[in-house]
Structures are given as C-alpha cells and as structure tokens.
User: Which sequence fits this backbone?
C-alpha cells in the first residue's frame, strides 16, 4: 500500500507544480529562458510573509548595531579617562598625587573582556609601591576586546557585556571617591599613608613607682606621697607616616616614621596632661626578593619580641624586667633563605649607635655618650629559623651584640650580650613566646635594671676603677586566643644584675643612688577588639624591686585602656 500512496502524492505534487507554473506564466507574460531556468513570482501571501521576516531581521541587526555603538562609546570614554589621568600624572601641583592614584586605580580595574585569566576581570593586588601587579596576559587583554564582539554574539551577549561595563563603571566611581576621601598629600608623587592610635590609659597605683602611667620599677614610699594614686593619660597615643616609593635597582623602597607624646612635660600648669612629642622610630627600607637593607632608628633586631600589652606602649612591657629594648640608630642587612616550602632561615647583621643609657644634658647641644666616645659603632647579628605549622609560625632565634665604651682616662668597658628568642604555637588557641639574655654593661639596652657599670669612686678621679656590670634575665608570655577579637595574656619577667659585682663598690655612680639587685614583674591582661578600629583592654601588673642588702619594695598597677586606631 505504501508505494501506491507515495506515487499518488508525487503525482499530485507534479500536477500542482505544473498548474502553478502555467498560471504564473500567463499572468506575468514571461517565458522560459534559453538556459532552461524559469522565472517564478511567488504568490502575494508568501511575499508578505517573507517581507515581514526580512523586516524583523533588519530590526534585529539595527538593534545589535545600536548596542555595539553604545558599548564602543562607553569603552572609548573609559580609554579617554584613563589616558587623561595618565597624562595629568606628570603635571606639577598639589593634585598630582590624586591624579596618579586615579590612574593606578583605572589601570588596575580595567575590564578584561572575554579573554581567559583570573575569571574576575581584574588584575591581581598591588604591591607596596602602589603599582598594579597585572600579568602579561592580563595586560594584553583589555577594553579593546569588548569593542569587537564575535560574529555569533547575539543581543543577550551584548546586553550581558553592557551590564558588566556598567558594574565596572560604578566600581571605578566608588574607588575614585575612596581615593579622594582617603588621600594624604605630600611633596612627593608617591603614595603616603597616615596611621596611628588614640590611646587613653586610666590607671590606679597602690604603692610607690618610678613612673605613674607606665611604671617599670617599684620605689620606696616617700614621706609626703600617698600609697595610692589614680590618673589618666593620652601621651601613649601614636602617629605614624608610611611612604611607598619607586623601585630602585630591583628593590621596592619604602620609609616610615613614628611618634608618640611621651617625651616629657612642658613647664606649665597641669603639664602632666600635655605630653611632648617624641621620636620613636624612623627607617628607610630597600626590599629585594630575598634580601633587605634597613637604615634608620629602629628596635633591637637581635631582640625582636615583646610581650603584648596596651598598658605600656611608650616603653615595651617588662622593660627593666628581662626585656631588652631600645630604639637605636642602625644600618642592617637581612637575608631570607628558604629551606623548604614550610621553613626558612633569616640572617640579620648590622651596626648600631653604641648607647650606654646616659641621660643627656638639658642644653640643646648633643654630647657623645660613653659608647660613642669609643670611636666605633656597636655590632650585632641574629639568625632565626621559622617553620609554618598548622597556619602558625614556629620561630627560634639566636642573637649577639658587642660594643665598646670609653669612660675617659683610657677606662674602656666591653659591652656584650647573647640572646635567644622563641615563638611557639601550642595548638589552635594558645601560643608561648619569650626571650632570654646574658651579658655585661647593658644599661643602654635596658638590661641590669638600667644599670651599666660599677665604679670605685668618682669619674674625675684617675684612680677610679670602672667595670661592666654582669647581668642575666628574660621573660615569658602565654597567650590564650579563643576568638579572633579576644585574647588573654599572662607574662612574667625577671632581671638579675650580679650581686657579686654590685658588692665590689659603693653605689657612687648609680643612677638610682642605690644598687638594684633584682626586678621582677608578672602581669595579666584581657584585650578585646570591639571593631577593627576600636580596642579595649584591662591589665593588672605587680612590680617587685630588690635593693642590695636592704630588701624589696612592691607596688600594684591596674590599667584600663581604650584605643582607636586609624
């Protein structure tokens, strides 16, 4: 049955086609050409359908062209804005820094089109000098790819690209606004950052101490002084400036300087609440991939650790109780050597100003210290091993220091110290840090409770013997951090000048008027970071200081700290 059905269908189709050809030939008056081709005119209904379809196609093409033109216009505006910002970056004037920052932001967040890369359409983060760290692949792909859509791109693809351009434009506007609001102008075209902390310390002392707001030792109670004192201070607040400069010989350059208000008091009424500005640190850095050169006034790099405390920032916690510290002019070199993916070695060596704990004269003229009078700097070195364990660093370091002091009339004293420091994570919540030292003539480094030498008489007497005071000490801290914003710290420090050295001579040249044979201080504190910029802490500290052949004095210090960082 099927062949018959097919033959009937074919015959009916041939008859219909023949009738159509005869009818169209009669209407149009056209004949068969010599090539045998037939000129056929479709019926009216079919022509209308094809016309409507062509119109729809034309409208789609026009819409696509309009979207492409709008896309090209927005991309051109982005290019012009970027070129304008880069061109204006070389202009002089106070707005130069803002224009350069704008250019860097525009180049950093330029859309990446449809090319492969990070997937987010943005280059990687910037380095310290403020330059964008885009790869060569990201640099080669840029806005020009957006202006040339693929032939098969439809209206939906164009619409998606337009939405992406709009989102990126809004991101650019937000970044430009942020740069304008947070910009700090400087005389240089390089990026400058202002930082610091406004810190209020409320304290309550029970017993006599050497310094009310951040005491280091306990002292005998004087006749007219009360056994307790309450007060407040803001002079431990800090201000810092950081500048990120150009690359020189392959090294990233940067510098920073930090101040506080613990430099003394003005001679005026209520001057205790008007602390004078004091220089803390200021360094210039040249950082290569594995080597750094640091020059300026900085902490003791061979004793880098300090206990955690907001009660005493003007002087590191447990100073004169086993924690060596000073801010010393120095030049040092650091080299990092990777042993494996999880461990490395750090080598540090440098020269330092040989300080001996002298109190300068009240005149503005600077006189050499006993260490500087030797005519040579102090020398120091440190090596540290670090291993990454469970997202924490285990570090053990060993350091050494040597300096010479000239106390006049060819009375030379060798100052030296050997140090060890460690930071050991104890699981997820606990960490143990500490340091130990053994040395001689370390009063300038806060060792031996600030006592540097012992002497048999006055320095003006040529027969007076001057010897370096031997001492040893250290500190240890246990940190408990159950939450990222909450931590509890308990620490203990002890400093021990050798009593055998102290007994050799009377305390004629002692800064305190007596020989201090020991100073120890435990403390506990709780630090809570309410927000990223607000922190509060409460601390209890006990000071106990021993006087040679006399006994000891003790005092308690309670401190409430409220800080706002910026």
Assistant:
């Amino acid at each position: 049955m099927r062949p018959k059905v097919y033959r009937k269908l074919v015959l009916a189709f041939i008859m219909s086609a023949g009738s159509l050809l005869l009818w169209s030939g009669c209407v149009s008056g056209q004949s068969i050409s010599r090539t045998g081709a037939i000129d056929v005119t479709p019926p009216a209904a079919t022509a209308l359908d094809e016309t409507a379809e062509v119109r729809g196609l034309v409208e789609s093409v026009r819409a696509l062209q309009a979207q492409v033109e709008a896309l090209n216009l927005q991309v051109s505006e982005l290019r012009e804005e970027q070129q304008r910002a880069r061109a204006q970056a070389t202009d002089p004037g106070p707005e130069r820094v803002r224009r350069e920052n704008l250019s860097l932001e525009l180049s950093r967040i330029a859309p990446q089109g449809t090319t492969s890369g990070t997937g987010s359409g943005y280059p990687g983060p910037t380095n310290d000098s403020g330059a964008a760290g885009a790869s060569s692949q990201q640099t080669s792909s840029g806005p020009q790819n957006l202006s040339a859509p693929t032939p098969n791109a439809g209206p939906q693809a164009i619409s998606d690209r337009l939405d992406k351009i709009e989102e990126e434009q809004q991101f650019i506007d937000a970044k430009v606004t942020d740069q304008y609001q947070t910009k700090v102008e400087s005389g240089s075209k390089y990026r400058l950052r202002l930082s610091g902390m406004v810190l209020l310390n409320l304290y309550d002392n029970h017993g006599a101490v050497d310094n009310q707001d951040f005491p280091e030792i306990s002292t005998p109670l004087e006749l007219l002084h009360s056994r307790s004192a309450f007060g407040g201070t803001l002079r431990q607040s800090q201000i810092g400036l950081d500048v990120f400069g150009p690359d020189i010989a392959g090294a990233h350059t940067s510098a920073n300087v930090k101040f506080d208000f613990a430099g003394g008091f003005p001679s005026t009424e209520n001057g205790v609440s008007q602390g004078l500005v004091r220089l803390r640190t200021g360094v210039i850095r040249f950082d290569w991939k594995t080597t750094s050169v640091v020059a300026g006034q900085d902490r003791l790099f061979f004793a880098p650790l300090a206990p955690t405390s907001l009660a005493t920032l003007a002087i590191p916690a447990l100073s004169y109780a086993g924690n060596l510290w000073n801010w010393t002019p120095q030049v040092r070199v650091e080299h990092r050597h990777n042993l494996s993916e999880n461990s490395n070695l750090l080598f540090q060596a440098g020269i330092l100003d040989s300080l001996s704990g002298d109190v300068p004269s009240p005149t503005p003229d600077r006189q050499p210290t006993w260490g500087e009078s030797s005519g040579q700097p102090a020398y120091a070195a440190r090596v540290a091993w670090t291993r990454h364990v469970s997202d924490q660093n285990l570090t053990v370091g060993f350091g050494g220091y040597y300096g010479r002091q000239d106390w006049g009339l060819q009375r030379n004293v060798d100052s030296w110290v050997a140090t060890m420091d460690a930071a050991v994570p104890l699981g997820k919540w606990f960490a143990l840090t500490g340091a130990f030292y053994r040395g001689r003539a370390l009063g300038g480094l806060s060792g031996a409770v600030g006592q540097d030498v012992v002497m048999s008489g006055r320095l003006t007497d040529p027969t007076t013997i001057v010897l370096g005071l031997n001492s040893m000490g250290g500190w240890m801290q246990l940190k408990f951090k159950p939450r990222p914003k909450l931590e509890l710290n308990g620490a203990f420090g002890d400093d021990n000048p050798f009593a055998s050295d102290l007994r050799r001579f009377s305390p004629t040249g002692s800064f305190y008027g007596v020989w201090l044979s020991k100073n120890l201080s435990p403390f506990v504190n709780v630090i809570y970071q309410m927000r990223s910029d607000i922190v509060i802490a409460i601390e209890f500290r006990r000071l106990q200081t021993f006087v040679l052949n006399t006994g000891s004095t003790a005092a308690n210090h309670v401190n409430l700290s409220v800080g706002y960082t910026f």
